[in-house]
Amino acid sequence: xxxxxxxxxxxxxxxxxxxxxxxxxxxEPKIExxxxxxxxxxxxxxxxxIKPEEIQLIPNSLKMDILLSTxxxxxxxxxxxxxxxxxxxxxxxxxxxxxKMNHLRQxxxxxxxxxxxxxxxxxNKIFLILILECERNWAYGMYHKQELTFIGEDIKRLRYxxxxxxxxxxxxxxxxxxxxxxxxxxxxxxxxxxxxxxINSNYxxxxxxxxxxxxxxxxxxxxxxxxxxxKDTIESIEYEEKxxxxxxxxxxxxYNLSSxxxxxLDEAEFExxxxxxxxxxxxxxxxxxxxxxxxxxxxxxxKYHGVNIPIKNEKLRSDFxxxxxxxxxxxxxxxxxxxxxxxxxxxxxxxxxxxxxxKIKGEEGNxxxxxxxxxxxxxxxxxxxxxxxxxxxxxLSYISEYSKEYNTIENISKLFEKEIKLKIKPxxxxxxxxxxxxxxxxxxxxxxxxxxxSYIIELNYREKIYTLxxxxxxxxxxxxxxxxxxxxTIMFYTIEKIKESNEFYEQHHLENVSQLxxxxxxxxxxxxxxxxxxxxxFVKMQLDKENNKDKKEIKDKKENKEEKEAKEKKNDKEKKExxxxxxxxxxxxxxLMFNENIVLTKEQYEDLKDFITxxxxxxxxxxxxxxxxxxxxxxxxxxxxxxxxxxxxxVDLTFEKLEYPDLTEKTxxxxxxxxxxxxxYFFGGGK
Length: 687
Hints:
Elements: H1 3-17, H2 23-48, H3 66-76, H4 84-101, H5 124-151, H6 156-183, H7 186-206, H8 210-230, H9 233-257, H10 267-274, H11 279-290, E1 301-304, E2 307-310, H12 314-332, H13 336-365, H14 370-402, H15 409-415, H16 426-446, H17 453-480, H18 484-507, H19 517-581, E3 585-586, H20 590-596, H21 602-607, H22 616-625, E4 635-636, H23 664-667, H24 674-683
Parallel strand pairs: 3-4
Antiparallel strand pairs: 1-2
């Protein structure tokens, strides 16, 4: 139902209700309407009728980081992607909200201008209205400038709109600067001055006043450079980015002012032109440092790779404090089982912190700059550093508890015995040192960008010690398995590794590091134990050799007797088998040989004596008599051979000269008659 129909129905209802009601009832609603109108007018007048002259100015009451507040708004509302129109709309909506909250509306129906004066500024939110008005005009000007460059033509209307917006922005910046000079502290005064110079430079550059713009930008750069020194690492990033953006516009000014535009300034020459010493500015900065208006840096911060990173998130800060408490408890605790529980609490806390930092990085990563993401990566690396260190401490606590069985010569001498009961085997100690090596290598990779080289050298020395001690326990494992030769060679290898570690220790002058003294004494003890293992293993090897010799002699005697008996038995069996397997050959050499009287010589016969039962004399007699001891079934040597008669070979040499008869007439298919076809079609008799 439309609004017009509703109004008509309401009028009809009032007309029908008028004759039934009395005069008193008719007068009352008129008075109420008038009263409501007067009340609304009084509320609007209260909002508009503000007397700032009665309020007294309070110096140093305004404290605000103008650059940081504007930068955070810009990053969160489109300027990371270069969307100036979105940022301008945000500024417009934010101004409306702040004016409504602080009762500074400029009229609902009619416009009544309400200027923000120093007397009205009770809070930073009121002062933020001025900054947002300036930012809005600046953003609209930059948006139109983008349009102009995108079109590629000089449009007068757009150029006029850009100059108008930049001019309004400079007027707003001038107001901000004046208010900062009146009621702001020294830092806000400097911030307001630099902000005014930056906004004004955009107007001057667009109107081709490059000399004035260059002078203003130099002053702004110097102010931001000085304030950057007072800020922490996270806040100083915004100042660095602002200085870089202003230096690009300064290069543009220098390029346009130079007589020959082909000349390019070096970086050193550019820095000379930019850096200008201002005595008043240095005095103000010293006042900020020494006086009551000194910038309060964050109380809690972490140091990673020589850089202090302040922790501003309350949850993360409390987690770091709890970590420190857990660390102190772990150091004080002596019971291993209780220590393990504390270590687990420590790891759980680190996991929560890791998730929290990743969440913050994900929320602010798209809105902040690359330098901010680097800071979050450094915080994550710092947390990972703490995790790896605690993993190493946990394994070292296990090793210090369980290595008591292997610390003395008496305990190691027991390993050479056949039966020994141990709480922990050398193989398990090897696993612990494997874990240590893995965590230590991860820590070295994490700390490769650390500027403190002494710390990296210390980590490398620790890694060498962990590898050395692992090799030592490998040798003990061979001792436990009574493999003396392997233990002997591995312990020699451990001594070589100890020499290398000692050379590294002396080369890098690590004797000054107090934390490594315990490790040094541990290495000396392992060297003594390794020498003891080498000596005992050598003695055991010699004894084993002597025992093996005696055992071999006894075995050899027994084996010789058994072998002789076995050989004799084998020889007898072989002789019997040879006699049984001998073939009785008929040694006549065929009828041809008999006819030609060819007889085998004694040397030829001896070659066949193993396979013939006859003697040579019997062979000669048999050759004469043509009968060899009556063996008629014997085979002849060599056998009688019968030659086959050759058959004729037929070769066809005619090739293509031979003419074959033509058989096409015979191969022709006879055609069927009409009756045959019909018969085949109906009865399937033909094709």
